[in-house]
Amino acid sequence: MTHAFFQPPAASRFALRNLRAPRCLVATDLPGNPAGELAAIDLLIDNGRIAAIEAAGAMPAELGPDLDASMVLPGMVDCHTHLDKGHIWPRQPNPTGDGAGASMATMRDRTARWNADDVRRRMEFGLCTAYAKGVVAISTHLDSLAPQASISFPVFREMRERWAGRIDLQVSSIAPLDIFLTDEGRQLADIVAESGGKLGCVTRSARFPGETMPPDLDEALVRVFTLAAERGLHLDLHVDESTDPNARALIRVARTAMAQDFTGRILCGHVTSLALQTDEFIEETIAACKDAGIDIVSLPTVNMYLQDRSQEARTPRWRGVTVLHEMKARGLRVAVAGDNCRDPFYAYGDHDMLDTFTQAVKILHLDHPLGDWIRAATETPAAIMGIERGVLKPGTPADLIVLKARDYSEMLARAQFDRTVLRAGRAIDTTLPDYRLLDDLMRA
Ligand SMILES: [Zn+2]
Predict the structure, then answer these.
(1) Most buried one in 240, 250, 292, 313, CB count within 10 A?
(2) Is residue 1 part of a domain?
(3) Which CATH number is 202's domain given?
(4) What is the span of the domain harbouring residue 55?
């Protein structure tokens, strides 16, 4: 059973008429269309692709249904996730709800239980959920401390092949920075290269566990950039995910990139502590990121969950998110993404980029006006991943999310459980996988 609220015509060529699309995502001129955040459009779909986009009313009624101002979005893009951690919460919760508790709980679960079958089945569950929600591309980190990389990367490669045509999958490693000062780091870079992945790490060192600015930071960063450059890899880093204002690694990443003349893409996630710096230091850091061509992804739901948490029944005093408005205003490419899902880093989540965007609007005040912020969950993360997705453009696949909601107010106020998801112009089954499928993996 699916909750989709309409079925498109069965013909291979048909129109969906009288839709509302975010204007910033419509890659076609619509002469005479009134200004505003949404454009009124008719979409012509032919053989699974968008064949034409015209102002609403332009296409003849016999071509297809009038959707009465329903919103249409392109398939959404999640550029920072952890599919390998997903859904372990029932067997391995995080008793403290903070980052340190999350790391410890995850390590315990990983060393005891992450064989290939366990990782595969939880990843599959996450992908089935994301697909049903209308997500078309995902980049996942994989916990990469030995021996896990040699278990998880082969599983990922198999999943990438099996899901090709449904979800474009990308991968990056994640490990403490200092392993790149050892031979294990070189071997990991080779596994990443063999897997067509991005090299990733956190800006923390296992040798200095409590330090948000470990003494080996600069030396290890140089090594990470060198290993990536030698193999032609892009970088995908977890940076300054902390409530500690001493965590100032982002500007060091930017300066290392400049000093090394690094030519790959660099995506930095989190950078929560930047929001706790002086305005001057924020400006200096953003300018350095701009010079180095660094892209930023904010993970608002997870940041709000983990940051500023106390064990003493103390109310959190800040939202835990980075300075995304300032970064976008200075011309950085900024995205929002889902990050963790039902694991010790985030007890909740459902692989739903539309929900992530909706929450991002509220957590980060992306509203009044919303402007083109929807790009941060669609076109921009696609550009950051180097793929053409997240836009409504003639010639691209008709991978669409059609909502009953007629405008942003209706879309952002109500959970969009009854969305219709079209892939190549056909409605897919949007029934979500049952948690019971994972019950046998959750036993003690
Ligand atoms: Zn993450």
Answers:
(1) 240
(2) no
(3) 3.20.20.140
(4) 13-74+392-427
